Amino acid sequence: MVLNYIWIAFFLIAFAVALGSFLFTGDTAVFKAIIDATFASAEMAVMDIALPLAGVMTLWLGLMNIGEKAGAVRLLSKIIGPFFHKLFPGIPADHPAQGQLLLNFSANMLGLDNAATPLGLKAMASMQELNPDKETASNAQIMFLAINTSGLTIIPISILAQRAILGSANPTDIFVPLLIATYCSTLGAIIYVSIRQKINLFNKTILLWLTGITAAIAALMAYCLSLEPEALSRFSSFAGNGILLLVVTAFVGGGFYKRINVYEAFIDGAKEGFSTTIKIIPYLIAMLVGIGVFRASGAMGYLIDGLAWCFDAAGMNTDFVGALPTAFMKPLSGSGAKAMMVEAMSTYGPDSFVGRLSCLFQGAADTTFYIIALYFGSVGIRKTRYAVQAGLFADLIGVVAAIIVAYIFFH
To answer: DSSP class of residue 136?
Structure first.
């Protein structure tokens, strides 16, 4: 229901802005821009997202089937079962979804988007099997979506690379602030959903795991800070690709050890890839067209200008306002937010306050509406309950944390 209202709002706001622009200036260009955006967004949903995703989905669902038959996913479930059983009480401790969730979160943290999406879709399908109401999001699915939309990424290699391309003197200087901001976003998501689901965050198991994860991230952060930029880039590439290769090798090796037909297991799992991709295309088109119309109308620019006026009227420092387009675009469109980040660094400089803050916004959260449309659409969820609110709350925490740490580190 929330997505319904948001989708309608995109079109109504876009039409109102376009009509207002025409009445005041007589310019009809905005109408053409909106219509062009509808067709371009629909084409992008299929050609740039769905079709490439079909190949990746086919590959990873095949590998996941090997891992499940070999027992690797169940082994992961046993390792993290005590923690996930408290955080996802609706999932049995030895259920394969536990291992699938861990693989998805790990891929996201390492910035392996191509691997994370199929793993996440597989986890969502497993949770849907446990869901008594197939059209309504379960508690476990909402917690999963909230953590995903919080965008926890330990090694933001794409952002660091973009800073280097644009001539930053020290591309990695945003590493610590970004890690702090994205971790705050993730904690905010967990806390919000836990309160709504009455999960006791002071449970000993949850506290021990969160403390351990925090300590591990801090240790990794300290190690990465000790590296030179070139060495950090090599380490990031090695960590991401090395762990991914290890997972693939472990799955195939485990299948060989258990004497299963690895090839047939891959084919059986891969068959789901294309059908799953076809199923999510309508959801992708609907969400991306709505976002494209909203953006093409110029409504985003008016929103930023209005906020700048409000902050200035309140006597607040407005140095951060130039980076806000990235923050507002991130929940709507990953490619749009990246374009805003690049534009901010190109306009103000990659080592300027706005340039650095735009990078923090890009890495502090994820594309909430896209992720919800993708994952819920793949299993036919129509009633999202408070999933959108949880995702946007995590985004807000990430934005606020990014602004605070940017003022601490760079202002």
So the answer is: B
